[in-house]
Design goal:
alpha+beta, NADH Oxidase, 18 helices, oxidoreductase activity, SagB-type_dehydrogenase, Nitroreductase-like, Nitroreductase
Length: 509
């Protein structure tokens, strides 16, 4: 399978669409006794404890959206530990009687947390160069191999890695999410890594630390470096953090096959997911260079002729970023009360904050159903050049609920956002891997809106959707687009308790 054979991505996308009929005929029943364990545990490998006195990212949340990090700042262990924590650490521990829920700094579909973080450290003050796995429950690093492998990772990803202090590689353990969501869960690999990447980006901005997100890499080489098989668990994103002048050679590492505990009694394989993932892999440095050149081209996004209503974002800096991340939790019930126009405008504006990537972004347009925003007539809109362009006017609460898989959250929210991508154009330039990029950016933009909403004192939640019904509803503006993800925002109908910094989760029980 080649990346250029885009029928694979088209087939996957069409085969995993939700519809009114499909959700009623799937016949899937959750096997609770076989639910995957939420943590990856290695057998008989040394661990390096992370500092407990981590510095929180204290810059105001909205300053962190716009901060331009220094290109010369290096990374130390405490800052790395804090970045890992506010990206994927535990903020709440809840006992349900039959199981314990460990909720993280960033949201995840179904609270199943399929994304793992690995550190490829080369020049981190206080940490020996090596490849490590981040264990959020014990708040430590598991040592996979020692040595500086930034040069090797750079050879098979991006030159930015050779000049960073450390790279963080995001992987997905597919079974964790497929247990519930089956074939559609491949989309969630990128939604969930995207919202985590949004947390990481703002945290690094708060620390004045460079962070670049890399979607192009030679999959087999990166997976081999981490000791993962590339099928059951596979790399999905590389983040280059900080700056280093320390030379990193590109010596090839030995193959490792670390032993881990099983996630559940048995794991079911999904050939459609495996086929899609393998078809979107890059297999050589030459193919990578060609892909990066194609990804550097801008994505043409629709621009309506109509002049829209200007956005009016708030000028406030907001609470410290660390407080906002701890406050964030997916809202379970909205109150059907209005949000202000400056709150709405700020969320929209921050959704398109600059994101340093190896592709030319953005690759999504933002559509929204406004149910109850002061100063905006209820209706459907498209965001274009900092304005709100009318698609259709009307009261669409019941429609927004229906589009969100008939969930009450979509109906009760003050506004429901739909990031949509010109998927065929993206696939035509980037091949099947463009599917990863489009879904990832949907996740990143949703993650930024999540943090903006909680920074403004309201709530938010991610939702799934009826694919073709969303496209049809926003037609003709959306005729060449596909929806990537949904985020609903509004005032919660309850007072939620903020999370807290939890570095030893077992002690909370």
């Amino acid at each position: 399978m080649k990346n250029s054979e885009i029928t694979e991505a088209i087939n996957y996308h069409e085969s995993t669409k939700h519809s009114y009929v499909s959700v009623r005929t799937g016949g899937h029943v959750l096997d609770w006794a076989n639910k995957p364990h939420p943590f990856k545990i290695y057998e008989n490998l040394p661990k390096t404890p992370l500092p407990r006195d981590i510095p929180p990212p204290t810059k105001p949340v909205f300053e962190s959206f716009t901060q331009q990090p220094s290109s010369e700042k290096s990374l130390d262990l405490k800052t790395l530990a804090s970045t890992l924590y506010f990206t994927g650490g535990i903020t709440r521990v809840v006992e349900y009687g039959w199981e314990t829920g460990y909720f993280r700094a960033a949201p995840a579909t179904g609270a199943l947390y399929p994304i793992e973080l690995y550190v490829v450290a080369g020049d981190v003050d206080g940490l020996e160069p090596g490849v490590y796995h981040f264990d959020p429950k014990a708040f430590c690093l598991t040592v996979l191999r020692l040595g500086d492998f930034r040069g090797f990772l750079s050879k098979y990803s991006n030159s930015a890695v050779a000049e960073c202090s450390a790279a963080v590689v995001f992987t997905s353990i597919g079974w964790r999410n497929a247990w519930k969501y089956r074939e559609r869960s491949y989309r969630h690999w990128f939604w969930d890594s995207g919202v985590m990447a949004a947390n990481m980006l703002l945290t690094c901005n708060s620390f004045d630390l460079r962070c670049r997100l890399l979607t192009g890499f030679v999959d087999n080489e990166v997976n081999m470096l981490l000791g993962v098989d590339g099928v059951r668990e596979a790399a999905v994103l590389v983040a280059a953090l900080g700056h280093s002048d320390k030379h990193a050679d590109d010596a090839r590492p030995d193959v490792i096959e670390p032993k881990t505990r099983p996630l559940s009694r048995h794991e079911k394989r999904y050939p459609l997911i495996e086929r899609m993932h393998m078809a979107s892999c890059l297999y050589s440095a030459e193919e990578l260079l060609s892909w990066l050149a194609a990804a550097a081209e801008p994505t043409p996004l629709p621009k309506p002729r109509e002049h829209g209503q200007a956005l009016n974002p708030s000028a406030e800096d907001g609470a410290p970023l660390w407080e906002v991340i701890l406050r964030r939790g997916s809202t379970r019930k909205f109150s059907r009360t209005p949000i202000t126009y400056d709150t709405f405008s700020t969320i929209v504006r921050k959704a398109f904050a600059e994101v340093p990537t190896d592709y030319h972004g953005p690759v999504v347009s933002l559509f929204v159903i406004v149910n109850d925003v002061e100063g905006v007539e209820p209706g459907a809109y498209m965001v274009c050049d900092g304005t709100l362009v009318t698609v259709k006017k009307g009261q669409f609460r019941r429609v927004s609920g229906y589009l969100c898989l008939e969930q009450r959250l979509g109906e009760d929210a003050a506004a429901v956002f739909f990031p949509m991508a010109p998927l065929m154009n993206i696939l035509g330039r980037m091949g099947n891997r463009g599917y990863r990029v489009a879904q990832l950016e949907g996740g990143i933009r949703a993650g930024l809106m999540y943090l903006a909403a909680y920074g403004l004192g309201i709530g938010a939640t991610g939702l799934t959707f009826y694919d073709d019904d969303v496209k049809q509803f926003f037609s003709p503006f959306s005729d060449d687009l596909e929806n990537m993800i949904v985020l609903a925002v509004g005032n919660p109908a309850y007072r939620a308790k903020s999370g807290k910094i939890i570095l030893d989760a077992d002690k909370c029980l």
